[in-house]
Fold these 4 entries.
Entry 1:
Amino acid sequence: MLVKVLHNGNCSKSNAVLEYLDENGVPFEIINMMEEPLSVQEIKTVLKKLNQNVSDIIRKNEKLYLEKYAGKNLSEEEWIQVLSENPSLIQRPILIKGSVAMLGRPVENVKYFIDK
């Protein structure tokens, strides 16, 4: 089954997962979140597949987060809007296989996800 990878080319973890998939012959499609930001609806779909809340996929160490959003008490809907406008704040990579998804870190967890 084709694995979709929500990817940021500037992220070493994201690149490591692509390398792992490639080396192991796993067919995948790259969705570059920086060039093609996810819509609000796409983020909601990803969260459902991850079975997580929006707060679980926010990169809280990111400079933009620390300068602009740290300590803000935003609703789930507001955070989803922020992430659709600022894809650099989304944890990556996110792997999607059918109706399930996972954060691709650490890369060791990807093997289990692929084999499942």
Entry 2:
Amino acid sequence: MGHRRWKIGLAAIGAAAVVLAAAAGWAYRELDPARHFDRDDIAILSTGDWDSSAAPPDPLQDGGEPASDPSDQVLPSEDAGSIQSESSSQAFQVLLLGVDSREGRGGRTDVMIVAQVVPSKRKVNLLSIPRDTRVWIPEVGYTKINHAYVVGQSKSGQENGGIRESVDAVSRLLRLPIHYYALTDFSGFETLIDEIGGVTVEMEEDVYLHHAGGLVLPKGQSHIDGKLALSLVRERYSFAAGDFARQTQQTRVLKTVAKELLRPSHVPELAKLLIQSRKWVETNFTDKDLLSLALMFKGLEDSDIRTAQIPGRSAYTNDPLVGQSLYYWVADEQKLKALTAGLFGR
């Protein structure tokens, strides 16, 4: 009798193991990025298709008033036409937004990065958008792209108006559909960095951090907490290249955060951490989407991420929102078209 119970117990354990293995296999197939994001109900927040004749010609595209400081005439180092597309029909775009406030809803967008995710190749393409980039916004005119968030927030009765207006402005600028967004503020960014134990950054020179009380981040490697990481991604005055150097630091920190999240010590708690991140990051990704992205980024290498910045020039002209002359980054339309074609396959 005891021998029979022993055999029944073994059979039950075996059956349970088979069921668990099947469930694990099903879950993995469901979350595999190449499968998970290849579906008909994927979000589309803005198509990128619009009638450009709705906007009057921008006089700054024909020259306009140049910047008075030659040091502002900084161009990204990339040759826009040399970037070859690695995109696919499954690729989708995510707009990453950092708001310059600690309240989540106020302020302007201090950070704007478009991330194209290519699940079939497990690649990511990042395009930094200078916050001073000149764009056309309906009912406003030509203004800075980081004003889009403020304009959207001021529209009564429009839920998530700042996000919607920012998504539309970026989509129009790049002629690119935007499928997802992720937004955080200063406090959320600091908390996220602290939750993963900080990040290690490598500086090519000593950097004076204006937003950290003048603390100097030394040349070489440093392990920094959320407060210093925020100061670094906001810093531009200590770099000769100004805002373009700031954008470079932002993408470097972003890559470092992704690597840190996927360290072996973090993998067991990754699902919990991603779900907790909803306290600090507002997004239209579902929990399943986030878990699928975690699978995609597993084993992430620097070679899996390509970065670029918008080519153009500096200029000053009157802004319709503030009624005075402001600094702008004027995108070179032809070079930008070549860049998006190469980087995003558009």
Entry 3:
Amino acid sequence: MTTESAANPGLKRTLTLSSVVILGVAWVTPLIALATIGIIIQLSNGTAPTAYLITLLAMVCTAWSYGRMASVHYQSAGSAYTYVGEEMGPRLGFLTGWLILLDYFFIPLVVWLIGAAYLSAQFPIIPMGAWIVAFIVPTTLLNIIGIQVTARANYLLVAFQLLVIAIFVALSLGYFASNDTGSTLLSPFANDTTTIAALATAAAVAAYSFIGFDGLTLLTEETIDPKRTIPRAMLIVVVFFGVLFVGVSWTAQLIHPGVEFASVDSAALELARMVGGNLFNAVVLAGLIVGQFACGLAIQAGASRLLFTMGRDGTLPSRLAYVSPTYRTPVVSIVLIGLTGLVGLFVDVTTSASFINFGAFSAFTLVNLSAIVHYWRHRPGQGIGAILGWIVVPLAGVLIDGYLLLSLGADARIIGSIWLALGVLWLAVLTRGFRQPPPKLALDSEKPD
């Protein structure tokens, strides 16, 4: 063993399938099912469960392809940029990482914006901008200090969120059984105003609710038997949330078949008050705020880790790799993400979630393509099963993800295209006019404490 390997040993493999699944559920956040319910209902013309089913199909195909790639590149931690870079070339891998950065960089903004929207609806006398700042400042300070969230806290947080959702579903079904809401058991899936365009637009935005499952690939080095565990965990997490989102939206539309809300960004409070009065409204609000704060804390920490890595490896300016000598955290990256959250003063939840999904769908499409390219180059299996697993399912993912990408709003496509163009220009700078290979990200290198 070399001195370097002795000083920097590999991560210890301790995570089982159940542990990885719980982490995936915590990262995606169960209460997102209620946080964005009004937006999906409105965009889908009152057929939110069907929109979620379309998104679920896309996510299952994509999770399958991620799992295939994770089973091939299981020796070390990786993600979409690793898989695309290995299978389709480092330059395309770099651009995939750049598109993922769009997600990581702006997801905290959406998380804080959702939380601020609910607090503003409950306390309208206080400007929404004040609530956004109230999320950003303590979250940024805690991440600079380096607060650690334990596995036990993750279990408790997930359990509390699932409890709130279970109560909401039970109260909603009771309300539907005792009141004439004008709905039938099947009307939430289709109505007279249902259109393919509306469903596609809603499904494209609904994908925001699933973002986070792909991060499980970064746990490869700490997982027992990652070749089998990571693919299975990703599919379990995606299917779990798909069933959750469809179920919650179905019960929501049983009691509220229309698309009009006092505030579409905080529709969950209106629904909670309808079925459980002011007390349950307060419980849902507390759950949403706690969930959004904890989610924002974790996502800002993860996003700053990505910026730190890209700065250290020369992909982004090296200043982003500065680590505080006192707290041993990437202060510049953390603060930059906090400042980005101030964009929430000028955009709404729907717009911000949409342009984030531009990066997600682009990366998902490329991962699906990577699985097909890997099969074409290496022929890892024979027969119908291999063709279905390596060609048919990933190709379905390419088609559905690509269609949903094109279904995003014009603003999202414009912002996403500008971001991609900036990535191409930056790649040209890094590679001296594309004459050199781009720097390679190494997320499995030593991390800041």
Entry 4:
Amino acid sequence: MTSGFVRHRRSKRAIATFSVFEADLLRSLAGQLVELLHNESAIAATERDPLEALLDFSGPTTEPDDPVLRRLFPNAYRGDDEAAGEFRRYTEGALRDGKARAAGTVIDVLEEAGLPPEPTDEGITIDVELEPETALVWMRSLTDLRLALGTRLEVEEGDEGYWYSLPDDDPRAQAHNIYEWLGFLQETLVAAVR
């Protein structure tokens, strides 16, 4: 298992070495997030005039049906559905695009670092070096990935006892281990860029 991110000795870059399994898992999680973000009509068409896209405020006005998307895009105004809908209409599309781009950056960095399309050799390691700007993008994406997984698992504050009581071979325990690993990566990345 990776030791997390550390600061490069002579630069402001954050570095980490992932096993091929860990890198492929991160790529898969980021890919699933991109797919979820693009799976609803809130995403603007990609082949549009930039000015037209900038002036398009035809986004969604209601909360998403998916609980993960509701967690990632909560209502801005509780108790005022009309104001919340208007805010969502003007902002959600751009927010989705930003989250999808951040997850895409995670995928791009892993693949540029040498993660093959279909990893087969467990002995391979992937060395990742993040410039400060890219590290911030990774932090945002790790947060989104952790929120998504925590929402799917229905993780709640103070429920650690439940998760630790599950047998190791329980798929929920394994998914929770990934959730904790994402938190570990977040913490080490934040520490590495301070």
